[in-house]
Amino acid sequence: MIPHSRPLIDGEDAREVQRVLLSGQLAQDGEVARFESRMASFVGVRGAAAVSSGSAALHLALLSLKAGPGDEVIVPSYTCAAVLNAVLQTGAAPVVADIEPATFNLSADDAARRITPRTRAVIVPHMFGVPADLDALGALGVPLLEDLAMSLGSRRRGKRAGSFGSLAVCSFYATKMMATGEGGMVLSGDEALLAEVRDLRAMDEKEEFRVRFNCKMTDLQAALGLSQLRKLAGFVARRREIADLYGDTLRRLGLPAPHEPAECEPAWYRYVLMLDGDADPFIDEMKRRGVECRRPVYKPLHRYLRLPGYETSERAWRRAVSIPLYPALTGAEIETILKALRLALPKHCTGRGHEAGTLGQASRAC
Question: pTM for the complete prediction?
Answer without folding.
Answer: 0.94
